[in-house]
User: Fold these one by one.
Assistant:
Number 1:
Amino acid sequence: MTVERTGVYPGTFDPVTSGHMEVVRRSLRLVDRLVIGPAINIGKGPLFSLEERMDIIKDDIADFPQADRERIKVVPFEGLLIHFAREVEASVIIRGLRAVSDFEYEIQMANMNARMDPTIETIFLMASDRHQFIASSLVKDIARLGGDTSQFVSKRVFERLKAKFKKD
């Protein structure tokens, strides 16, 4: 009997970037089912509403092969990640790392989660050199200042960013 391995990939995804999508693609090689969890995090003051962020993620995975799309669910969460991971029966939390600066925070979170539930592993996926510097906050800043974000996000996200910051 084979046990299905479920991974959860949490984040704010405000907006989802090509780096996020790279982590999604690579995660599908490691798990049977992937739950992408956009966080309901009012404290961060997201540019896009939860509904918009969920739509953006679903739009971006629409281009994936059908077999991959069928293995992905987009489920928002609020509260502790470890509680959400248990709720979706995940055995793995997947986190993307861009730089050493990400690692310090992420290792603290992974260790705390491991203390709360040692049965759930955290896996870190290093961003490829193409995506190491892409951060949602920087993408928003570039868009806000009228710059071209098309090389950092999908065409759909690019259009949504342009609409958000359209000068009247």
Number 2:
Amino acid sequence: MYSIRVESTFSSAHNLRGYKGKCEALHGHNWKVEAVVASQGLDKTGMVIDFKVVKHQLNTILEKLDHAYLNKIPYFKAHNPTSEQIALYVYTQLKKKVKQLASVTVWENSTSSATYAQ
């Protein structure tokens, strides 16, 4: 199995509904997002997929989250904007464009992340 990884970032604010603690208050993060694409084989050029294709598709999704208050984005009005839900949201959106997508990891800081994989 081959896999490639691309990373990108975005900055946004959110607050966690129903959470008892500091994260219940409005606060922000400089998020790092990692997308992993996997394949049993390689294409005719010897790649899983071109890095720039995945980066472009990922950045298109993250542009909608960058410098936004996540709680006001329609998806996050219905789903608490946790790292886990952000990973699921990005995965679902990116999977529409990159069929071999294996996982998305969202880092809210250098020591804490959440991953969604199917």
Number 3:
Amino acid sequence: MRTGLYPGTFDPVTHGHIDIIRRAASLVDRLVIGVAINRDKGPLFSLEERVAMIEAECLPVGDKTGTEIVVHPFENLLIDCARDVGAGVIIRGLRAVADFEYEYQMVGMNRAMDSSIETVFLMAEARHQAIASKLVKEIARLGGDITKFVPASVKEALIAKLARK
């Protein structure tokens, strides 16, 4: 069984993330969506909220593709998470050249720690290349329309979260 790990903070999950998940699901038998507990980033949504949003939006992808999809929170090194879930491949989404520079460094470090785990890059579809969770939150915070960037349920959750802040 080929297991892939697609890690991220997913704060919140966007159409770009879902696009990568949909495409990654065709490459593996089991796709683990690793939700990073990254206290340094100070996510807007709690871990539980991010996991619930990803499950609601992405588990149906598994039904359509026949791929087992698992949502797995993690707080350790990415390479250790990959080992923990039995992933032979880490899947990373790229939007632009700037993403590649950072990802290239991370791949080198991960390969130095465990050369048996490969990293595969998937380019975001052109219509999703500008989407970044950080920008989506900023647009929503300033009253802009985020309909094009996130699923309807995520939009509602984000607007409600910002209204409480």
